[in-house]
Specification:
- This protein is an all-alpha fold.
- Helix 4 runs antiparallel to helix 6, helix 5 packs antiparallel against helix 9 and helix 7 packs across helix 8.
- About 4% of the residues have low confidence.
Length: 247
Amino acid sequence: MLAGVMLGTGMTLEKSDFSQILTNEKQRKSIPIGVLCQFMLMPLSASIIGRALLLPYHDPSTMVHLGKHLFLGLVLVGCSPGGTASNLVSLIAGADVALSVLLTTCSTILASVVTPLLTKFIVGSAIPVSGKALMIATAKVVLLPVALGVFLNEYFPKLCQQVSRWTPFASVVLVFGLTERTARTISIETGMQNSALAVVLAKSIGADPLSYLPGALSATAHSCIGSGLAAFWRLIDSRKKTDDNIE
């Protein structure tokens, strides 16, 4: 299912979408900031919280070390790219939806290499994890479907145009500078991870089923917290508009 979502993402992308990131000065400024936040703040937070709260945990009755499995799951969530739900939350929040789409796309493509390397680096000393297995699993569910989607869009554009009408990625346009909308977008994109990918990766490398739990729980948490924050920002914007009209 996740590979199908990634395929749909790729089918909405063209080569020009990537060239715009490299040629537009404002995009070059905002995209690296967002990607760095994605792959620095979240993995670091997952590592600190996991080592402090999860890794030391043992089952009180059997003394089995359960914490290491929860730690792996949390790190996989922290090292995953931005989730597609962030695009919808950005729309609700009045943030820059186009920038959200671009950040999701960039972090998703980079995830095929960055996610396995970061996960191996963080948990390698505590839990035996195969970096090669992680990289293969990530490539299967992320890189290959996206690449296939781009290929289909190149040679079957009419088909892909019909598909793209039903995805949030059809709204790719030029982004603007690091305004308040951009800051909101990067905040949402950084905080809302692709939790489904974390669960898929945990299953793909044969991890203990307990490691699926952080990904499953975080999917709900991200959606609830992100939607609440989006509604709050939307309320602030409406009040500002009301005040401006009164003045």
